[in-house]
Each structure stands twice: as structure tokens, then as C-alpha cells.
Amino acid sequence: MADKKGIEVYLDLLSQPCRAVYIFLHHNKIPHTVKTVALRKGENKTPDFTKLNPMQKVPVMVDNGFVLTESDAILKYLATNYNAPEHWYPRQPERRARVDEYTAWHHANTRPHAAKVFIMEVLLPRMTGQPTDPAKLERALSELDETLEKLESMFLKRQPFLCGDDVTLADLLAVCELMQPLGGGRDILKERPKLATWRSRVQSALKDSFDEAHAVLYRLRDKSRAKL
């Protein structure tokens, strides 16, 4: 059983995996302290943070001296050690395996493909001062579309959530990634009602913690729309 003195998490809420960890902690009322690491300011490359995580990435969790990196591992640790409701990461082997199946797939599909669109439409233009390359963006959107198709046909099928009848860590990781292109004003689920309904279902399950975590992304979206 984990000590309930509280944990520390190092986060930047513009980061999709950081939002997933933040939402999980808040929604499940797990005692914690947030340490903000501003990636845009290079705070992840300072000597102190590099000592904590040599990979220089967020999120990072510290629980009584136990340091853990990678959002997938952090979420599973929290779900297991802090008595989160069982539906998040089921104990029954087949149901747990379904969550693991998605999270293994997630890192080579949902995450890079949704992130690439955001990087091309928001980050690169800001960093370089150059407009988005239309041909490269079109290829990125095509790759993302293939991933969205798999999410619908393989994972959602006829069930309400990615791994069954209730929200799991899989849905949390996925929804945070699929929200990211919204920072550039692009709703990638606009033409996919099945996934859009799933997103609303996940958002309802997460309640206020969802919008609280995505506030920084909403502000970015509003700025991008104001430029149009």
C-alpha cells in the first residue's frame, strides 16, 4: 500500500501525457503537488531536472523518493497503488490486457500522428516563422486519418469506450492526444461522429478535471481563431 503523504508530479499542461496524469490525479482526488516545468522555456533541460529525468521529458512522478517517468507507467502505478476505481485499470486479466493492448498501440499510432499535426500547424510556424508546408500537412493528416479509422473499427467497435463499457486509462491517454490539434484550431473528430460522441462520453466521465486540464489548449485555440 502506498504512503498517502502525497506525491509530486512535474508537468507542462501543453503536453498531452501531462494532461492525462493531471486529470487522473484530480479526478481521483489523489493527494499531490504539481511542479510546473515550462517546456517552451527549456526548463526540462536544467541540471536539476536532468538529474531527475535524464531523458529531459515530462511527466515525472516522485512518490517518497521513488522516481517514475513515462505517462503510461505513471498512470498504471497510480491506478494500482492509490486505490483508484477498478474500471481505470481492471484487475481481471482479460480486461487489463485490453487496456495494455491499446496503450502499447497508442505510442506508435495515436500519439505521434495527432502530435505531428499540432507540431506542423502550431509549433513549427512559431519556432521558425515559416508557414506550414501544405503537402507535408496533407500527408500528416492522411496518416492521422488511418489511425482514427483504426480507433473506430478496432477499438471502439460497438462499445462505448476503447476497452469496454467503462472509461479506462486507454481512453484518458487517447483523448488527451486527440485534443491536441485543437490548439491550432483543428477539430480532427469533426467529420467522425462516432469518435466525437466517444470524446463527449469521456469528457462527461472526467467531469471538471477535463476542462481544467485543457484550459491552456483552449486559450491557444482561441488565439489561433482570432488570427483567422
UniProtKB/TrEMBL annotation:
It comes from Megalops atlanticus. It catalyses: RX + glutathione = an S-substituted glutathione + a halide anion + H(+). This is glutathione transferase. PANTHER family: GLUTATHIONE TRANSFERASE, PTHR43917. Its main location: cytoplasm. Gene3D superfamilies: 1.20.1050.10, Glutaredoxin. Belongs to the GST superfamily. Theta family. InterPro entries: Glutathione-S-Trfase_C-like, Glutathione-S-Trfase_C_sf, Glutathione_S-Trfase, Glutathione_S-Trfase_N, GST_C, GST_C_Theta, GST_N_Theta, GST_Theta.
